[in-house]
Amino acid sequence: MSTPVSLETVGRVPKALLHDHLDGGLRPATVVDIAGQVGYDDLPETDPEELATWFRTRSHSGSLERYLEPFSHTVAVMQTPDALYRVARECVEDLAADAVVYAEVRFAPELHIEGGLSFDEVTDAVLAGFADGELDAAAAGREITVRCLVTAMRHAALSREIAELAIRFRDKGVVGFDIAGAEAGYPPSRHLDAFEYMRDHNARFTIHAGEAFGLPSIHEAIAFCGADRLGHGVRITDDITVDPEDPSGTVRLGRLAAILRDKRVPLELCPSSNVQTGAVDSIAEHPFDLLARARLRVTVNTDNRLMSDTTMSKEMLVLAETFGYGWADLQRFTVNAMKSAFIPFDQRVQIIEEVIKPQYAALID
Ligand SMILES: [Zn+2]
């Protein structure tokens, strides 16, 4: 008899995560604790459970701009090396406890310099936290590899500097670059020099595109900027049609959707987050399954575990419950993510063949 897909069983299988924000995944108790230590008095709640509820409720806002507001509180408590180190280390512990075996966690150095830290000091503290978190997890019998993406805020003008930071730290745990923040009015091409710098250094990057804004953003990210992956990319559905008269549900792709599929451009899909920002109305209406059926390279991600009150297991489970996915599907999404990681090819293959496939094999009929 096959093993049912439940929170408990999904929680045990290896998972790979490409899109997770460090400042969106703090433990509520840690936010309260550090706020007390650094004298930050503006938290809306000081009881960890009530604070968790506040984040979840406020984040379910229906717009990306309003969704981003609560980050002012998490960023406020991430301004010292000790705080950054602790948040990074706990992030790894939490992912490992959820059986995530590979993660790329991103953060924006420019949001963590209010206390006078340099970009390099901020990055050093985060990487030290990741490294010790990996050691803690290994000691607890949970192997996890965590790498870092450095993000530039798209409304600011620091992207070239952040890209240079990514290259400076490329052999110390930073495997890529990204831009994030309010999408409308800030097209990817505004940061072309940063992307050209990355390409010039044979380095890789993803771009938040097609979340709050549609096809033009995705087109720029791919055609002008040369993104290796798309953060979200859900709005590519505007270029996909399903013939309602066709009982076989044939999916037709426009040119842009087709090139994403044909070039195997990974989509970093974040179902719960997309509902909260209003990119889609509900999980049932999420185009995850349409995109999977259209054979785009879909991956499952958390985006912001605190704001969305989620984990990789919860995201996988809600998709399985909504679209009827079984273990073979969940393995495919996990392998998709691992294939799309920014670590070297041989390391990706090793995790796929030695960690992911053997554990799913026992579950697939
Ligand atoms: Zn994101």
From TrEMBL:
Give the signal sequence positions: none
Describe the location of the Adenosine deaminase domain by residue ranges. Answer: 14-357
Catalyzes what? adenosine + H2O + H(+) = inosine + NH4(+); 2'-deoxyadenosine + H2O + H(+) = 2'-deoxyinosine + NH4(+)
Q: Where is this site: Important for catalytic activity?
A: 232
Q: Which cofactor does it need?
A: Zn(2+)
- Any idea which positions bind Zn(2+)? 19, 21, 208, 303
Q: GO: which molecular function terms? A: adenosine deaminase activity; zinc ion binding
Q: Please name one Pfam family that this protein belongs to.
A: A_deaminase
A biological process from GO:
adenosine catabolic process
Alphabetically list the UniProt keywords: Hydrolase, Metal-binding, Nucleotide metabolism, Zinc
The active site annotation covers 211
Residues that coordinate or bind substrate: 21, 23, 181
Q: What is its EC number?
A: 3.5.4.4
UniProt keyword Zinc, yes or no: yes
Cofactor binding mode, per the note?
Binds 1 zinc ion per subunit.
Its GO CC terms?
cytosol
Role according to the record: Catalyzes the hydrolytic deamination of adenosine and 2-deoxyadenosine.
State the family named in the UniProt similarity comment for this chain: Belongs to the metallo-dependent hydrolases superfamily. Adenosine and AMP deaminases family. Adenosine deaminase subfamily.
Q: What is this protein's name?
A: Adenosine deaminase
Q: Which organism is it from?
A: Mycolicibacter heraklionensis
Name of the coding gene? add
